[in-house]
Amino acid sequence: IAWMQKVTSERMTEKARGHPDPWVRLYARLALAGLPRGGGNGDDIRMGILHIMREYGIKEGHRPGIDEPFLEQWHQKLHQNTTPEDVTICEAYLAYLHSGNHDDYWRVLWDNGRITKEHLEGLNIPIKAWPQHLPHMINAFKGYLWTLKTCHSGADMDTAAEMAKGHLDGDTTWMLFDMLQNRNEWWVPGKIVEVRKRLAGVWRAPGGSRDVLLLDIALDNYFRTMVERTDRSTLSRDSLVDMVGMVLDNAGI
Length: 253
Description:
single chain, mainly alpha, 13 helices, globular
């Protein structure tokens, strides 16, 4: 499945980059925003959970160890059919490992992925057990979350930045990560426009990386979020004109 996701996202990238019909380019870009990144290594996902279970003595099949039905059931799903939902499940599991409160597990499942108890129990490979509190496994699952994100989280801004930085020059990389570290500052929308202009020459080039286009999509989404949450009633007329100009500039990239 990871390989199929990669092929699909690469084909959408080609259409978004070079199809002669602008509507096709637009719809390909919109489709890419909702697709998992794909690639990485599906074996890393399947074997990664096994390595964690064995390292921490979790029972697996007939292998003796700590009986943790949640991890056994999730492991079976990961082995047979890993999906973007696994990123949310891992985030929720980490929230629970930190707090020991199952409310945090269910809250993150819903907030991050609109996943309910009934949905988990209704999967082809169901997850019916509630996790046990094993906080000594936090660091292991932080690493595993990154493994899942490299495969599934295409337009997640931080993941996209990490995956794309190898295709960028030093100045663009510095601007990008400076913006990410200060993402709530007032000047960030303008910086996003600057970075996106630099990215355009990279992802539009023949053979350009899909990771750079996914980063561009993530930045465009965050730009919209920043503009929409601006309290425009507090802005002067000149500031409003500047904002409109910046929005049009961003739209024209």
